[in-house]
Amino acid sequence: MSGFRAWVTEARLRTLPLAAASIVLGGALAFRHGVFSTPVFVLAFLTAVLLQILSNFANDYGDAEKGLDDETRLGPMRAMTSGEITPAGMRKALVITACLTFLTGAALVFTAFPGDWIRIVAFGALGVASMLAAVWYTMGKHPYGYAGLGDISSFLFFGIVGVAGSYYLFSGELTGESVFLGCSDGLLVAAVLNVNNMRDRAADEKKGKKSLAVRMGDLGSRIYHGILICGAFILFSLYVFIFCDTYVPFVFVPGFALLFLSAWNAAVIGASRRKIDPELKRTSVGALLVSVLLAAGLAAEKLWFV
Fold this sequence. Notes:
Elements: H1 3-11, H2 16-32, H3 38-65, H4 79-82, H5 87-112, H6 117-136, H7 150-171, H8 176-199, H9 201-206, H10 212-243, H11 255-269, H12 277-305
């Protein structure tokens, strides 16, 4: 592959909807409550995507450094493993991406909270914590991803913090509605990570990476995946019943058709087969589709039905 294609591969474009989904939902809530800001949305979107890319780069670097990404993995061959990208090149990319993430994050908090230094410092600290969580997932002497804590971290940072945190940037308020919706989205984020870990479960187990899929085993990880998808559907439905004024936001339901199909393939066909890899893309795209459809439903409810 060419040098450019190698970096595109390492960025893992099919995982970027994870970051986008949380910001779309946070922005939809802000629009629903009349506090939406285009500059805040754009900066939050860029920061979230860069944070996801940083996480992906760090993940590949950490796994390659520890010998997990080799010819036995079922997913796409990583550019570091093939030698297309050197460790030194990836370290430079990590520094550059971290700096870009910090700069867009700084611009975001200064735009959202002009002159409010308490909130600027507080959100700045949260941003730094998110960056450290992205890097320490597989890097360092004791990466938490190797201890089975990746699902919890993804649920927290790309679910609750992504949705409720972005809404706070618009409104300056932390609400039960935003946290509830963040939990709903967080289950889908965890589902995407679980598909990835299901695919790599056998290889990870042999090499000492104790992801949650490894800890639960083949059958347990399949059941867990079904629970995540079904749980997300229940929470999104409850959100509409509890917080919305009409049933219009139920337009998100068709998005779950892709997620239920992916859950069936991942959980029933088999977690250890090569067929599992395409489900990562389906689950990720399905999560974004649900978020976009729900956001459209919330916008339609505000504009035409309430």
